[in-house]
Specification:
heterodimer; A: alpha/beta; 11-stranded mixed beta sheet; 14 helices; 37% helix; B: mainly alpha; 3 helices; flat
Chain lengths: 474, 94
C-alpha cells in the first residue's frame, strides 16, 4: 500500500468503493508523502492533519453505512483563497495570517457534500497576484520536477501538490492563467471553466469579472469528475449560469474525425521556447493523424490582452481589496506586500477621475473586440489549440526581474480568460532538461464537455508514451 | 506618463514610506508605458464589456434564512466593545 498517494482520483474512488483500502489509509498515504516532500516543495500554507484524519474515519463509517457519495473519502488540497469554515484562510497574505472564516465557500460546501476530505490549504501568490507563487508572504513553492524552478502560479501550491502526490487532486482558481499556467509548468491537468460555470461565493475576490474556480488533477477524467461536482447555478453568486451541468465524466468519448481544430500563428509568439513550440506542433499533428481537421485561423494578437487584463484586473483589485481595513477581520493595510500595493495603486489610478475613459473604459472596449474575435473564430472551428505557456518552468527568482512578469508568462491564456471562455491544460511531454510541457485546448463558452473530450482523446492516444511514466525525484 | 503617487496613495488608503514611494512611482510609470498598445486598437464603434455572462436582472427569492451569529461575526476582530466592532474615530474631535 506504499503508493496509494500516487493514485488518480478515479483509481482512488474505485479502490475505496471496492474496499481495497480505506479512506484512512489513503489519507495517511497523502499525509506521509506531505511529510516526506513538503520541506522541498512547500506546497501548503496549512496542513489539516488532525481534521483530515477525523474526516477520513467519518468517511469510512459512512461507507460502512452504505453511503456512496461520488468523492467519499478522497483527500483533496484547496487553494488558500477559498473560505473554509474553521480552517485558516490566508490568500498567502500577512493581512489574513490569522483569519478563520466562519463559513464555507460554495465550492467547499459542494466538495464536502460529495464526501471530499480537505487535506490542506495550498500556497499561492499573495491574493493570487502573480504567476510564480514567489509573491506569497509565506515563502515560494518549488516545482516538484526541479526544485530550482518555479511551479508557476497563482495556484502554484495546488499544481505542485498534485504533481508531488501530496493530494489526490486539488482546487485552484484562475483569473487569467492561474490554473492553466501552473498546471503546465508542473505537468498536470488544469481546467479553467467558463466564467459563471462555478460559483465564486466564498472565494477571496481578486478580479470579480474574471475569477473562475476549477480543478487541478492527474488525469482528464479526474478533471471531469470534479467539475461535475463544482459546476452549477448558485444563488449566492448572481453571475453563475442557469444552464444545466453535464455528466462530464460519462461523456468523454468523441468522434475526433468530425473535429475542427483551430491553430493560430499569433499564439506561437516571438521568443517562445523552441522545445515548447515543437512539442505543441507535434501534439497537434497526432490529433490530425487521428482524423481531426486542422485549420489555420487568424486570432487577435494576444499581446493586447496583456494591456486589457492589466487595467481590468488592477481596477477590480483596487475595489476588492478596499474592504481590508483591519477592523472586522485581518490586519491593517500596512500588511499588504509590495505586489498588492502596486496593483491597488495602479487600479485606483485607472479608475480615478479624469483617467477612467482613457484606461478602464478603453480596456473594456478592447475586451469586446477580443470577445468578438473569438466568436468569429468559433464559427469556423470547434476548439483552438495553443501552447499554454511560452516558456518552460522558469528558475526560482525569475518573477523578480520584471513587474510585468506575470502578464508576460500568461500572455497565451489571458485572451480566453478576458472573453470568459473555458480552457484546459494537458501535459504533452518533457523538455531535454526534464521540465514538463503543456498544451491548452480552448472552447466557446460552456463547451467544457467538448474540451474535456478532446483532452481525453489526446491522453488516451498517448497513454503508452514513455514520458508518462516519469515521476518527480523528491 | 506622470503618476501622482501622493494623490493615488491617499485615494487607495495606502501609506508608503519615502523609498517605497520613489520605487513604486517608477514601476507604475513603466507599467503604464508597457500597456500603451491599447491606443492602437480602434474602438470607435465598440461598446465596453462589463461582464461576459449575458445574464440580466438576476434576483433570488426574498426569503429569510439564518445569518452568522453575532459571536461568529465578531470572532475575527481585534477590538470588540459591547458586542460591536470598535472602529477608529472619524470626527476630528474624537
Amino acid at each position: 500500500m506504499n503508493n496509494l498517494s500516487s493514485l488518480s482520483l478515479k483509481e482512488s474512488t474505485k479502490g475505496l468503493k471496492e474496499k481495497k483500502f480505506s479512506a484512512l489509509e489513503l489519507t495517511k498515504a497523502c499525509l506521509g508523502q506531505i511529510k516526506k516532500v513538503e520541506v522541498k516543495v512547500n506546497a501548503f500554507v496549512t496542513i489539516c492533519e488532525n481534521e483530515a484524519l477525523e474526516e477520513a474515519n467519518k468517511a469510512d463509517k459512512k461507507r460502512l453505512n452504505g453511503s456512496n457519495l461520488p468523492l467519499l473519502g478522497v483527500p483533496i488540497a484547496i487553494k488558500d483563497n477559498f473560505s473554509t469554515s474553521g480552517i485558516k484562510t490566508t490568500a498567502s497574505s500577512k493581512v489574513l495570517e490569522n483569519y478563520i472564516p466562519p463559513y464555507d465557500a460554495t465550492v467547499i460546501k459542494k466538495l464536502k457534500e460529495a464526501g471530499v476530505i480537505i487535506i490542506g490549504k495550498t500556497n499561492m501568490d499573495a491574493w493570487a497576484h502573480g504567476s510564480s507563487t514567489e509573491t506569497s508572504d509565506f515563502g515560494a513553492t518549488k516545482n516538484p520536477w526541479n526544485t530550482n524552478h518555479l511551479p508557476g502560479g497563482s495556484s502554484g501550491g495546488s499544481a505542485a501538490s498534485v504533481a508531488a502526490n501530496e493530494a489526490v487532486a486539488a482546487i485552484g482558481s484562475e483569473t487569467a492563467g492561474s490554473i492553466r499556467q501552473p498546471a503546465s509548468w508542473c505537468g498536470v491537468v488544469g481546467l479553467k471553466p467558463t466564467y459563471g460555470r462555478v460559483s465564486r461565493y466564498g472565494l477571496i475576490a481578486m478580479a470579480s469579472s474574471l475569477d473562475s474556480p476549477g480543478p487541478i488533477t492527474k488525469t482528464v477524467e479526474d478533471s471531469a469528475l470534479i467539475l461535475e461536482v463544482l459546476a452549477g447555478r448558485d444563488e449566492m453568486d448572481a453571475s453563475t449560469s442557469p444552464l444545466p451541468v453535464g455528466d462530464y465524466s460519462q461523456n468523454l468519448e468523441t468522434d475526433i474525425k468530425k473535429l475542427r481544430i483551430g491553430i493560430s500563428d499569433s499564439y506561437f509568439i516571438a521568443g517562445i521556447d523552441q522545445e515548447v513550440e515543437t512539442s505543441v506542433r507535434n501534439a497537434i499533428g497526432k490529433l490530425e493523424s487521428l482524423g481531426a481537421k486542422i485549420e489555420t485561423i487568424k486570432l487577435f494578437d494576444p499581446k493586447y490582452a496583456i494591456d486589457v487584463y492589466t487595467i481590468i484586473q488592477r481596477s477590480e483589485v483596487s475595489s476588492n481589496l478596499a474592504r481590508y481595513d483591519g477592523i472586522r477581520y485581518g490586519n491593517e493595510r500596512d500588511f499588504f506586500g509590495e505586489e498588492a500595493k502596486r496593483r491597488i495603486m495602479l487600479g485606483t489610478f485607472a479608475l480615478s477621475s479624469g483617467y477612467y475613459d482613457q484606461y478602464y473604459n478603453k480596456a473594456s472596449k478592447v475586451r469586446s473586440v477580443i470577445i468578438e474575435d473569438f466568436k468569429k473564430a468559433f464559427e469556423k472551428v470547434d476548439v483552438i489549440i495553443a501552447p499554454t505557456s511560452p516558456s518552460l518552468a522558469l528558475p526560482v527568482g525569475a518573477s523578480k526581474q520584471s513587474v510585468m512578469f506575470g502578464e508576460i508568462a500568461d500572455v497565451l491564456v489571458e485572451p480566453s480568460s478576458i472573453a470568459g471562455l473555458p480552457g484546459i491544460n494537458i501535459p504533452i511531454g518533457f523538455s531535454k532538461s526534464n521540465l514538463p510541457i503543456g498544451m491548452q485546448i480552448m472552447g466557446p463558452q460552456f463547451a467544457e464537455q467538448l474540451i474535456l473530450q478532446v483532452a481525453n482523446q489526446y491522453e488516451e492516444t498517448t497513454k503508452e508514451e514513455g514520458w508518462r511514466k516519469k515521476k518527480p525525484n523528491l | 506618463m506622470k503618476f501622482d503617487i501622493h494623490h493615488i496613495a491617499k485615494l487607495a488608503n495606502i501609506s508608503l514610506k519615502k523609498d517605497e514611494k520613489d520605487k513604486l512611482e517608477k514601476q507604475l510609470e513603466d507599467t503604464l508605458d508597457y500597456i500603451s498598445n491599447l491606443n492602437k486598437v480602434n474602438t470607435e464603434k465598440t461598446s465596453p464589456t462589463d461582464h461576459v455572462t449575458g445574464l440580466l436582472n438576476v434576483v433570488r427569492e426574498d426569503s429569510v434564512y439564518p445569518s452568522l451569529s453575532q459571536e461568529e461575526a465578531l470572532k475575527n476582530t481585534k477590538e470588540v466593545k459591547k458586542g460591536f466592532f470598535k472602529v477608529k474615530g472619524i470626527l476630528k474631535n474624537e
